[in-house]
Design a protein that fits this description.
The protein is of the alpha+beta class. It is built from eleven helices and ten strands. Strand 2 and strand 3 form a beta hairpin.
């Protein structure tokens, strides 16, 4: 089915990003997976070529265009290349809206130029040991002391936890005040008491550095409060739909890539004297997967258009994330099965895709949380 989402300028952007990946990523990603972290040079090269902060106004060094289709192109091309170590979608899709919508002019001038150049790598720290997707269970606490916040607590499963220079930390600032108990503090590399904990060893996406973060009496300047005190939970709820759509975008592109890889494989792989693609079971399986892939693509593209129009709701984003990621995991499992024993070998792309995909139904809110969001929106009780 012909996609009608993009304009000629988006096609040029995609072509440029593919060249960037060929020149600065393709030859290094396997090494990054072994060392479990991406070289910062890749970020600097991406910033130089305009692939970071596309929505950031030009006066701060960005592209000056708020159009999620550019973000989607980056997520799609990373998924198609299997370049799961580069956390550009986290930087552009998840952190950028907080800085653009909440930062003061002083904060924007301080952080956004480095954000766009790749000199400042960002992360957001919500999840804590023991609370998982329950954001209201956050225990990290900040107490105002003069012109500083004293921050104590721990976070886990933080993407870019090792490389990050600026971390948006969700903390309790007004305990016992319900949803207004939380605020967002911007913690910078080098602040006394801010430590990186374990560099976590994941089953997939090994090049994407994921870590524990520890805060022990960190004196965070009051000037690093992002937005208003007590509004942190509201800001999270407002921005989570774009995060979830970003994950769905990756799912759709990964499905298309794995399906194409598997079709090529079954055309060439011989069994019982003929290509396994000639077997009825193979044809029927791939027919189902192709139909599911097209369904996900149509859903995700429509949601991208709705997001840019400002009409995508939280429950619709949850639907996209739920449906796309569950379909992705199912498809890659079936594609690996069609590869037989070879699919279990790490040297085959389908094995890497299988390992990388499993987190998709977990981060950004588990599938169970997505179902809860959708169910509540239906006002069943």
């Amino acid at each position: 089915m012909q996609r009608n989402l993009f304009e000629p300028e988006h096609d040029l952007f995609r072509e440029s990003f593919r060249k960037y990946l060929d020149q600065h990523v393709a030859g290094h990603h396997e090494r990054w997976e072994q060392q479990k972290i991406v070289d910062r040079d890749a970020w600097l090269a991406a910033g130089k070529q305009g692939f970071l902060g596309m929505a950031v106004p030009e006066q701060y060094g960005g592209g000056g265009v708020r159009d999620f289709r550019y973000n989607a192109i980056i997520a799609e091309e990373l998924a198609r290349g299997g370049y799961s170590g580069l956390s550009f979608p986290l930087h552009n899709d998840i952190v950028a809206p907080y800085l653009l919508e909440l930062a003061s002019e002083e904060q924007k001038h301080r952080w956004l130029p480095g954000f766009c150049s790749g000199e400042i790598i960002t992360a957001i720290a919500m999840t804590e040991p023991g609370c998982g997707s329950d954001l209201q269970g956050i225990k990290t606490r900040a107490v105002l002391d003069g012109d500083h916040w004293i921050l104590n607590g721990a976070k886990t499963f933080i993407t870019s936890g090792i490389n990050s220079d600026l971390v948006l930390v969700v903390a309790q600032t007004d305990p016992g005040n319900g949803p207004r108990s939380f605020s967002i503090l911007a913690v910078e590399r080098g602040m006394a008491g801010f430590e990186r904990g374990r560099h976590l060893d994941k089953i997939g996406m090994p090049a994407q550095d994921t870590a524990e973060l520890i805060f022990t009496d960190v004196r965070v300047p009051a000037a690093n409060l992002l937005g208003e005190r007590g509004r942190g939970f509201y800001y999270l709820m407002r921005n989570l739909p774009q995060e979830r759509l970003s994950i769905a975008v990756t799912a759709a592109a990964a499905m298309e890539t794995c399906l194409a890889t598997t079709v090529d494989y079954v055309r060439d792989r011989q069994a019982f004297g003929k290509p396994i693609g000639a077997l009825q079971n193979t044809r029927f399986t791939l027919a189902d997967l192709a139909t599911e892939t097209m369904t996900v693509r149509v859903l995700v593209d429509r949601c991208i258009a709705e997001l840019d129009a400002g009409t995508l709701t939280a429950d619709e984003a949850a639907m996209a994330k739920l449906y796309a990621t569950e379909a992705q995991v199912k498809l890659i499992d079936r594609c690996l099965q069609l590869h037989g024993g070879y699919g279990y070998m790490r040297e085959y792309k389908i094995a890497k895709a299988y390992l990388d995909a499993r987190i998709q139904t977990i981060y950004g809110g588990t599938s169970e949380i997505m179902r809860e969001i959708i169910g509540r929106a239906m006002r069943l009780a």
